Amino acid sequence: MSRIHVCSLTRIGATVAQTGASHLVTLINAGTPVERPVAIPEDRHLFLAFNDILEPMEGMTPPAQEHVTALLDFVEAWKPEKPIVIHCFAGISRSTAAAFITVCALRPERDEAEIAQLIRAGSPSATPNLRLVRFADEVLGRRGRMVSAIEAIGRGRDAFEGHPFSLDLDVAR
After folding, report:
1. Secondary structure of 47-87 in the HEC alphabet?
2. Taking a C-beta distance cutoff of 8 angstroms, is the pair 152, 111 a contact?
3. Which residues partner with 47 through β-bridges?
4. DSSP labels for 17-39?
5. How far is Cα 49 from Cα 140, in angstroms, rounded to an integer?
6. Whole-structure pTM value
7. Is 26 left (phi over 0), alpha (psi -120 to 50) or beta?
8. Residues 6 or more apart from 11 whose CB is under 8 A from it?
9. Quick one: CA torsion of 113, 152, 48, 69, rounded to 10 degrees?
């Protein structure tokens, strides 16, 4: 069963090594140094540079539709025989939103609320970036269901760093 692993910047090396991941998604502020694990070829690493904000702010790069489009193009090219690791700085907001978006995009038949609940169960601190989710909801034609699902789980517990967790791409049988 294919898995999506979510972690913080400090845990990407260990997470890639432990999971045998073939692909890596980085969602982080521009200029933040990120060392790509040697097990991940450069063409299997998506680096999206933007700030973890919900509204545009002077001097910052907000999440945009172009970031969602790049994420969707990348994950649609991923062959899920091996896991994918998605990380941001803390493993709480941008990465959890990207994991949610990935499952919604690759498994359109899955229920958004069920996926959001699995994120909450996997990470009590998860607070998916709602701006990213809004763009994805629109692009994927989910008619507000993605946004509603994330709003329903609410803000996660305060934490400096999220606890790594994983999501199954497919429903466990």
Report:
1. EEECCCCCCCCCCCCCCCHHHHHHHHHHHHHCCCCCCEEEE
2. no
3. 26
4. HHHT-SEEEEEE-TT------TT
5. 22
6. 0.96
7. beta
8. 87, 91, 164
9. 50
Give the C-alpha separation, 36 to 13, whole Å. Answer: 8
Residue for token pair 């999506």: 4
Query: What's the sign of the alpha-carbon dihedral 139, 101, 116, 128?
Result: negative
Q: Which amino acid is at 163?
A: H
pLDDT averages per 10-residue partition of the chain, 173 residues = 92 97 97 95 98 92 97 96 96 98 97 97 97 98 97 93 93 65
Single-letter residue type at 148: S
CA 86 to CA 11: how far, in whole Å?
A: 11
